[in-house]
Amino acid sequence: MDGRAAAVPVSRAMWKVNVFAASPLDRVAHRRADAAWLAERLTHPASRFVPVWRTRSLIVAGEASRAVLLDPDRAAALIAGGAQATFLGQAGEAAHFALDLSHLNEDAVHALGHAAEAADLWAIGATLERDDAAILAHARALVTWHARHRFCGACGAPTAPRDAGHVRGCTDPACGAVHFPRTDPAVIMLVTYGDRCLLGQQKSWAEPVYSTLAGFVEPGESLEEAVAREVMEEVGVSLTNVVYHSSQPWPFPLSIMLGFTAEAAADRLVIDNVEIADAKWLTRAELRDPESLGFRLPRKLSIARHLVDDWLALEP
Ligand SMILES: [Zn+2]
Prior knowledge:
With about 325 residues, the protein is α+β, with helices and mostly antiparallel strands. It is built from eight helices and 15 strands. The protein has two domains: about 10-150, no CATH class; about 185-315, Nucleoside Triphosphate Pyrophosphohydrolase. It is about 25% helix and about 30% strand. The strands form three sheets. Strands 1, 2, 3, 4, 5 and 6 form a six-stranded mixed beta sheet that branches. The protein is globular, with a radius of gyration of 22 Å. Residues about 1-15 have low confidence and may be disordered. Zinc ion (ZN) binds next to loops.
C-alpha cells in the first residue's frame, strides 16, 4: 500500500451510470512514473493482465460472459515475446494491466485459455458484469490509442510508450513532443416536442434501428452548440433547453458519448439524407409497444437507450 486511502470512483454514487463507466480500478496516476513500483507490480502474484487482440477482448462467452485475465507468469512470457503492457489501475492489491497481443495469430490467442474467444466488446458488452465491461473498455481504448499513435504527429519520428503506457514520447530528441491518450467527445441527444421524442435511422446502419441523434464535437464549439448544430444539420430542427444527462466511455474506437436532452422549437423535420436516412416523432405509447414499431430501438448497453428509457420513465 502507498499510504493513500483507496479511492471510491465518484460515478458509483450516481444513478446515471452507463455501461463501460464506473471501473472498479483506482488509477493511482501518481505511480505511473515510478519505474521500480511498476516493475514490482508487473511480477506481483496478485497482478492481472487484460488481453486485447486487434481491438478484440478476450472473454469466456455465456449468458453471463466474463473477461479472461492472465496471471503474471503467463504475461511475462508474452511480454518477452513482444506484448506491450499498459497500466490500468488497481483493485485492492491487484494491479491490472492491458496487454496488447495483436502480434499473435488467432490460434495462439485461443490457446491462452480454455474456451476463450476474441470478441467485439460492442457486441458482447451487455452480457458482462459491469466491472468487467468497464475494465475491458478501458483496456481496449488504451491499446487502440497506442496502435494508432506509433509516430509523432509533430515530426513523423517513431514514438515510444512511457509513464506506464499513459504517454507516448517522440524518440527524436530534437522534437521531444509528448502525446497523451486521446478521447474524442461526441454528443448524443434525446430531442422532445411535447409528448413525443425524435429518433432517427442512420444511413450507414444496415439494420432497421432508430436511435437518438449524435455527432462529434467540433473544434471551437461548446457541447450545447454541438448538440444544436448536429440536430439542425441532420433534421433541420431548432432547439431550446439543452440539458446534460450523463456520459458513457465509448471505445469504438476512442470516444466518450456526452448525453443531453433538448426540446425542439417546432416539429417540422427536414431530413438531411446524408447522415440520416429517416427520422420520426414517437409517443411513449408507441415506444412501449416495441413489437408494433417495425424497427429496433438502440441496444440496452448504450446511452442512447438510457436516454430513451429515462424519458419513458418520466410518465407512467
Ligand atoms: Zn516528434
